[in-house]
Design a protein that fits this description.
mainly alpha, AhpD-like, single chain, 7 helices
Length: about 130
């Protein structure tokens, strides 16, 4: 494996948690293995691995970008990751307020609904 893969897998585990990454790895097939490799090396091993901003801010940016682009499926996963990145509920709502102003109220509204549900589940399972 490459240095980007190893670094990416380490950061992916740090942010998303071992259980999530273990499930993703167990579900990997020959079909999606190239995609999994690409996100591990590219997203996690390159972008998330940069030391220019902390994981907390990367987490907030990711949630805002997912909401702004309407990619809602991954929002709960990244909300759960906030317990590992240090982004608070207050940080998340601030990011989503920006989404409302710059990308649209309906997108922010849906993302807030997902965040509220996920934070509640996290609290109930704590």
């Amino acid at each position: 494996m490459s240095e980007h893969h190893d670094k990416g897998m380490s950061i992916r585990r740090r942010v998303l948690g071992d259980a999530h990454v273990d499930r993703a790895e167990a579900a990997k097939t020959d079909f999606d293995a190239p995609f999994q490799e690409m996100i591990t090396e590219g997203a996690w091993g390159t972008v998330w691995a940069r030391d220019t901003i902390p994981l907390r801010e990367r987490s907030m940016l990711t949630i805002a970008l997912l909401a702004a682009t309407g990619n809602f499926e991954e929002i709960p996963m990244h909300i759960r990751a906030t317990r590992n990145t240090g982004a608070t509920e207050a940080d998340v709502i601030e990011a989503l307020l920006h989404v409302a102003v710059y990308a649209g109220v309906p997108k922010a509204n849906h993302a807030i609904k997902l965040a509220k549900t996920t934070f509640k589940e996290m609290e109930d399972n704590a």
